[in-house]
Design goal:
Elements lengths: L1 H17 L5 H23 L2 H20 L4 H45 E2 L7 E7 L11 E3 L4 E10 L4 E8 L3 E9 L2 E9 L10 E2 L19 E6 L2 E2 L2 E3 L2 E3 L1 H16 L8
Antiparallel strand pairs: 1-10, 2-5, 2-9, 3-6, 4-5, 6-7, 8-9, 11-12
Helix pairs in contact: 1-4, 2-4, 2-5, 3-4
């Protein structure tokens, strides 16, 4: 699973680097528009376009009938039934392309979170790194040993939360850094990336030990210690400025991909 995640991240890192000269919103906008075109291609290849056209005509006819025969209850009832049937048929026809799109879209969004969803730490501002231990951990045991890069200071001793099986350290990045924290747990070294600075960059999220959990937290290698469940640094959520407004990256991604799909569907001969 690590290899699979690294391949996806390597491609996205190359793309991200191509737009390193511009604000992050530029690269995200181009990618979102390309995703919109890709969604149209999948819909065209996996859906029954002829049936969708027929169903959409049936919906239009039912709506016109409702407007023309608004004063005739019997005709209105027939039009409503036709409208509901046509809508259910449309949803059934749309299900197949939606299923084809679900997995690649989910994977893309999960991986993009590391590029656009988290802001690097601000130098001079403290944060927390938390390690959740595996079941069976004793709060009375010595905490894992933590080594930090020169640009980071540990400003308080580790704090245990026995009920949550968690150990937390307070960190202070004193300058920009792109390095790793090194924990020693039962003789095993566990690394956790740390990113601090002003520019938006690749910021890995939670590191996990479960293979299945790496599907949702794919940005770092699987934690090699069975004594650790996960490790996480508390990063702030990133936002991007669009036309003078602070916008969450997911909102902008879906807006641009939807608009691009709507604008290009006729040119590409796709009915949605």
């Amino acid at each position: 699973m690590d290899f699979f995640n690294q391949v996806i991240d390597a491609v996205l890192k190359l793309y991200f680097a191509l737009f390193s000269w511009a604000p992050p919103v530029w690269g995200l906008t181009v990618l979102s528009a390309a995703v919109g075109v890709g969604m149209l291609w999948v819909v065209r290849r996996t859906s029954n376009q002829r049936r969708i056209r027929q169903v959409k005509r049936a919906v239009t006819a039912a709506l016109l009938e409702l407007r023309v025969y608004a004063d005739e209850p019997a005709a209105t009832g027939r039009a409503l039934r036709s409208l509901f049937v046509a809508n259910f048929r449309y949803m059934g026809l749309a299900l197949k392309p939606a299923l084809w799109l679900a997995v690649p879209m989910a994977l893309l969004l999960i991986h993009l979170e590391s590029f656009y969803g988290r802001a690097p730490l601000t130098p001079g501002r403290e944060t927390l790194v938390t390690m959740r231990m595996a079941p069976g951990w004793s709060a009375d045991a010595d905490p894992p040993r933590l080594e930090v890069p020169p640009q980071v200071r540990v400003t308080a001793p580790p704090v245990r939360a026995a009920g949550e099986r968690e150990v937390s350290w307070r960190l202070l990045p004193v300058s920009a850094v792109s390095d790793a924290l090194v924990f020693t747990v039962d003789g095993v070294q566990v690394r956790k990336s740390i990113e601090a600075g002003n520019a938006q960059r690749y910021v890995p999220g939670r590191g996990v030990s479960s293979t299945m959990a790496t599907l949702w937290s794919p940005a770092e290698r699987q934690v090699p210690s069975s004594a650790v469940e996960w490790i996480e640094i508390r990063y702030a959520d990133a936002s991007m400025r669009v036309f003078g407004l602070e916008v969450n990256w997911l909102v902008w991604f879906f807006l641009v991909s939807l608009v691009s799909a709507i604008l290009l569907k006729k040119r590409l001969g796709v009915v949605i």
